[in-house]
Design brief:
474 residues; mainly alpha; two-stranded antiparallel sheet; 13 helices; globular
Length: 474
């Protein structure tokens, strides 16, 4: 129980920092009347899309809650409701902040002409989404534990009136994760289709048909494009990553429950105390990752203004990931020291789950580096596409597709090696912990991702409000 209080305290601390950032951004001026008018149009569009989507989504969720309650168990229906609520709130809060932050980034750029000050406003706004995703996923999980902890004494398979067999607590956890997934499907896919359709439509109307610049105020489709950045690349992204984070944690807990039940049935040594330590391990790991993200975000926000936000965001990510690994090593030693490992396949003793998690952290950073190599204009792949584009559209498309296809190979190799290595170190539980490790610093990852659409909107507002090319450039 004391561990759960610590987890909730960390979530409260992270959300307090998010609330502080919210009011800090809201206290800034929006700029000229024209900038405020454009920002309001984007905000209304994003709110309208999400309102209509959530109307349908609420109906779908309510139907599924009834079905889960009737055909599986009441506890499953409640868990599904908690999961969908947490995911929906995270997407809503993060998107609302993005629609307030975009115009303020434009205005700070207009007033200061400083890329450092502008980028800090964007990151402060995007941190709301990142911290909400990491916090709400753990808060919902803690609520499920508090409500259904009694099920942990039912470490056996039961059958309901439909003759469906399941382990009660595992099913409650799986239903919570499923609730998060439903919101992710709607927000990510629905919002994603909208934003790509709006983006492509705006470009076709402006660049192809009318031969006017991107985000030109004469193109009404630009507002739809900016709305799409918020509903797809912000709300959709947040719900998607929350679902992934919850899925990783829940899978690790369900696996250790399954291993415990299996070992108990076969008479294999696995102590009750060690079991309790291990089912809490992924939750605490993710919580420590959340507090590390607060430190990483704070570093980027309060560091002296620089001229290279890209580098500072990378350092903040690496700092969060590194601190997550170090602090969890300390927790591992304190929590598992002296524990009876029994017949668990832990090749490196009590450090095995930690090593598997660190493999996940390193894999996540490497995959990010691969993505940056293939998409950044600083490196060879995109420069080659730019060079080929001089020869015409068909070659540009072919070269772009070729580069994109090659880019996935390294990521798949990293995933494969990481999965095999983590499983070798600590069995199938280790493979699940690698997934937890990869997403343990999701707070900073989502913050950096949301930073993108906020700045994209800010650039659009700068162009539509005729603030000048230098402000657009910032």
């Amino acid at each position: 129980m004391s561990l759960f209080i610590c987890v909730l305290f960390i979530c409260l601390l992270a959300m307090s920092f998010a609330v502080f950032n919210y009011f800090k951004v809201k206290s800034l001026e929006e700029g000229t009347d024209e900038m405020s008018e454009i920002a309001l149009a984007i905000r209304i569009g994003a709110d309208t899309f999400l309102l209509n989507e959530y109307k349908v989504l609420i109906a779908v969720v309510l139907i599924l809650i009834v079905l889960f309650s009737v055909f599986i168990s009441i506890q499953s229906g409640i868990s599904l409701f908690i999961g969908s609520t947490m995911s929906g709130l995270a997407g809503l809060f993060g998107m609302k902040m993005a629609t307030y932050a975009n115009v303020r980034v434009s205005n700070v750029a207009r007033q200061t002409e400083s890329i450092g000050k502008s980028s800090k406003v964007a990151l402060r706004g995007s941190s709301i989404m990142g911290l909400s995703v990491a916090s709400f996923s753990l808060i919902g999980l803690a609520i499920v534990f508090f409500l259904f902890k009694y099920q942990l004494s039912q470490m056996y398979t039961v059958a309901n009136w439909c003759n469906i067999e399941f382990v009660p607590f595992s099913m409650s956890l799986a239903s919570y994760s499923f609730g998060c997934s439903i919101i992710a499907i709607f927000n990510r896919v629905g919002g994603g289709i909208y934003t790509k359709a709006a983006d492509t439509g705006a470009d076709l109307v402006g660049k192809a048909e009318e031969n006017i610049p991107e985000d030109d105020p004469r193109n009404p489709a630009v507002i739809a494009d900016c709305v799409g950045d918020n509903v797809g690349d912000t709300a959709g992204l947040g719900s998607d990553l929350l679902e992934s984070n919850v899925g990783g944690i829940v899978s690790a807990i369900i696996l250790i429950i399954s291993i415990f039940i299996s070992y108990k049935a076969k008479g294999i040594s696995f102590s009750e105390e060690m079991f309790q330590k291990l089912y809490m391990y992924p939750i605490v790991f993710a919580s420590i990752g959340l507090i590390s993200c607060v430190v990483g975000i704070a570093y980027a926000l309060y560091k002296k203004d620089g001229k290279d936000p890209h580098r500072e965001l990378n350092i903040a990510t690496w700092l969060s990931a590194g601190l997550t690994g170090v602090l969890n090593l300390v927790y591992t030693i304190i929590s598992l020291r002296g524990q009876d490992l029994g017949d668990l396949p832990f090749k490196m003793g009590i450090f095995s789950p930690w090593v598997s998690s660190v493999i996940g952290i390193v894999s996540g950073i490497l995959i990010g580096a691969v993505a940056e190599y293939y998409t950044s204009y600083d490196y060879k792949p995109t420069k080659k596409i730019a060079e080929v584009s001089k020869e015409g559209t068909p070659l540009t498309i072919v070269q772009g597709m070729s580069s994109a296809m090659k880019s996935t190979m390294l990521s798949l190799l990293i995933l494969g090696i990481g999965f095999w290595t983590s499983q070798y170190v600590s069995g199938i539980f280790g493979a699940a912990m690698a997934a937890v490790g990869m997403l343990s610093f999701v707070g900073i990852t989502v913050s950096v991702d949301t930073y993108g659409p906020i700045c994209d909107n800010a650039g659009g507002i700068a162009e539509m409000a005729n603030l000048g090319e230098n402000i657009r450039s910032i």
